[in-house]
Amino acid sequence: MKILKFFAVFALCAAACVALVSAAPAAQGPAIKFDSKDHDFGTIGAEGGPVSHTFTFTNTGSAPLIIVSATASCGCTRPEYTTEPVKPGKKGTIKVTYLPSGQPLGEFGKNVRVRTNAGGRRETLKISGVIIPGDKKPAERQQ
Predict the structure, then answer these.
(1) Is the pTM of this model over 0.90?
(2) Residues with Cβ < 8 Å from 59, sequence gap 6 or more?
């Protein structure tokens, strides 16, 4: 009987601890949340010129967020990002430009690794699409 009481008390204490940890405020510091982490350009022409997409993020933390770096997986992809600290609750952007000229025809997928001061976490943004011969722009694609 004592063992049963011990386990009952132990279970109640464990449940109380879990409730306290769940109710604890979030860690202090910056935090990044992207509206979306991937973008499909659809079908683009090899000679249609560069295409770009702007990824938007919000600092959901309690301290200024700094983009330390944004690095593309190849030279055909160029990221540009907000260089000023982003205050809590505010938005920032990372514009990714893809240069299809000289790239192989067919499907492509490229990554941009984003490093911030938000607890050492790294985020990965992804762009994709299909390159065809010619100068077709993304806006001309058929639905």
Answers:
(1) no
(2) 30, 31, 32, 65, 86, 87, 88, 89, 90, 91, 92
What's the CA gap between 33 and 61, in Å, rounded? Answer: 9
Other Cβ atoms within 10 Å of 112 Cβ, number: 22
- Cα angle vertex 23, ends 18, 27, to 5°? 105
For residue 4, give both structure tokens: 């049963």
SS3 of residue 21 by DSSP: helix
Tell me how long the chain is. Answer: 143
Residue that has been written with the tokens 């079908």 in this structure: 43
- Residue 87 has a CB neighbour count (10 Å cut-off) of 14
- Note the pLDDT tens digit of each residue in 100-136: 999 999 999 999 999 999 987 799 999 999 999 988 7
Q: pLDDT, tens digit, for every residue of 27-46? A: 589 999 999 999 999 999 99
